[in-house]
């Protein structure tokens, strides 16, 4: 059987070699998770919460090692990787609390001899498939609510970044979670997807990744009517209106666009700036973007690490070439952008972007900031909504009426108003349209792991 080589995207060296989990073992693991579910679901919520808290403590104690793994296998700058571990752990801590708040209710019956009780039960065994861009946070925001609810879970991390998941799950076992309550498999997305969706014991699929893969999983999961949560692609519009604080908007653009070198589903993909301020904004943004230090994420002061692989680099360069051919001004030459070689790209601002460019229509997943001018607020809202995606959107204005108009009319699940970093464990993350369904984080994030049952009692 072939082995999985984990590659450091900064050096392109193999940093670890892992065995793929054989199909027969994945099926056996699902069976064991089903057996473990029988005993885990009856553990009381306070004990589940205490085990989650213990896991959180171990994650805090191992933050340096976890951050190093994220940087080595994913390329994220080390300081940012540490931020991801803290972010990941905030889900563990949040769901340690939510475990204790899974409430039922009583409903007044229509006859005096009846009583109706409503209760929540864990859905069963969960199959989770996670991406490489947040190898810690996307794992904890699925595992923590699942086990808090009383489910058992099998995770399939991205083949690019399995080491962070393995370490997190080892820590979960050290904290007291039985091995078959939280486990992982090493497999390709396609193999795990097929096995998870076809095994009758799996009652829920949770996936973060691309829209095409999500659609395939939804199709497969429908065969046995499995519940699914899908956190899929984005194409975030980032709108800066005439009355916005330009300096603040530039800072928030940098925070949103260049987090993980632009490889996030919610980062600014297309920036629309009101005609009256577009020149000032673009000048200020370009100056800041060119200050960002690019390099190996383990090096001091690096703000932009490598992209995940050469395909990602090729996609970004294709968008730059397309924009340039269609008349945009690129803030650096292609030679300057690619001067560091390998998977590194120096970030650029694309001025005079127009709506027909690939960069305005395809998820970039790279360090490009395309800026297009607009005149009319209704027109910019129309363009922002004119996409199958609906994950995150941003707008900048200091006028409350304008802000409420944007908020009400933008068809997105996550919206930042003067805020380029809206993600938080206590807020419900997720998209509309082809960006998926279901929410992760907040009170909403435990619901997908619960079933509702009611009991009608006649006296
Ligand atoms: C993502 O890119 O899918 C996740 C981003 C976040 O949680 O902030």
Automatic annotation (TrEMBL):
Identify which residues the record assigns to the active site.
231
Any Pfam family matching the protein: Aldedh
Q: Mind telling me which CDD domains this protein's record contains?
A: ALDH_F5_SSADH_GabD
Query: Taking every annotated instance into account, which residue ranges of this chain make up the domain Aldehyde dehydrogenase?
Result: 3-454
Report the EC number(s), separated by commas if there are several.
Answer: 1.2.1.79
Q: Can you tell me which family this protein belongs to? A: Belongs to the aldehyde dehydrogenase family.
Q: Which named protein is this?
A: Succinate-semialdehyde dehydrogenase
UniProt organism field: Staphylococcus arlettae
What is the primary gene name for this protein? gabD
């Amino acid at each position: 059987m072939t082995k999985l080589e984990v590659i450091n995207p900064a050096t392109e060296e193999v940093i670890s070699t892992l065995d793929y989990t054989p199909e027969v073992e994945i099926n056996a693991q699902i069976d064991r998770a089903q057996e473990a579910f029988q005993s885990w679901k009856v553990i009381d919520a306070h004990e589940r919460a205490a085990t989650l808290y213990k896991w959180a403590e171990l994650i805090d104690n191992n933050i340096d090692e976890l951050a190093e793994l994220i940087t080595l296998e994913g390329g994220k700058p080390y300081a940012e990787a540490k931020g991801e571990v803290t972010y990941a752990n905030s889900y563990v801590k949040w769901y340690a609390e939510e475990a204790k708040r899974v409430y039922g209710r009583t409903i007044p019956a229509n006859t005096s001899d009846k009583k109706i009780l409503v209760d929540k039960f864990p859905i069963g065994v969960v199959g989770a498939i996670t991406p490489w861009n947040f190898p810690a946070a996307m794992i904890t925001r699925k595992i923590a609510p699942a086990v808090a609810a009383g489910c058992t879970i099998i995770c399939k991390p991205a083949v690019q970044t399995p080491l962070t998941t393995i370490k997190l799950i080892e820590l979960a076992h050290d904290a007291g979670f039985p091995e078959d309550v939280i486990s992982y498999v090493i497999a390709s997305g396609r193999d795990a997807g097929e096995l998870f969706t076809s095994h009758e014991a799996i009652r829920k699929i949770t996936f973060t990744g691309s829209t095409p893969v999500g659609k395939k999983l939804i199709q497969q999961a429908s065969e046995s009517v499995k519940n699914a949560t899908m956190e899929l692609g984005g194409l975030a519009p980032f709108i800066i209106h005439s009355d916005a604080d330009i300096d603040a908007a530039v800072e928030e653009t940098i925070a949103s666009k260049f987090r993980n070198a632009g490889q996030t589903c919610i980062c600014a993909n297309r920036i629309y700036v009101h005609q009256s301020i577009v020149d000032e904004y673009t000048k200020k943004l370009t100056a800041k973007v060119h200050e960002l230090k690019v390099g190996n994420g383990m090096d001091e002061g690096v703000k932009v690490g490598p992209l995940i692989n050469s395909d990602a680099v090729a996609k970004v360069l294709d968008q730059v070439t397309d924009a340039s051919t269609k008349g945009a001004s690129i803030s650096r030459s292609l030679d300057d952008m690619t001067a560091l070689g390998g998977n590194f790209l120096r970030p650029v601002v694309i001025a005079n972007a127009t709506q027909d460019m690939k960069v305005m229509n395809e998820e970039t997943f790279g360090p490009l900031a395309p800026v297009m001018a607009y005149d009319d607020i209704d027109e910019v809202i129309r363009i922002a909504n004119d996409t199958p995606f609906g994950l995150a959107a941003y707008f900048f204005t200091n006028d409350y009426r304008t802000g409420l108009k944007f908020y009400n009319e933008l068809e997105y699940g996550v919206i930042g108003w003067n805020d380029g970093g809206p993600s938080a464990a206590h807020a419900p993350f997720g998209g509309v349209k082809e960006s998926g369904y279901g929410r992760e984080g907040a009170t909403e994030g435990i619901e997908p792991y619960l079933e509702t049952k009611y009991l009608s009692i006649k006296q």
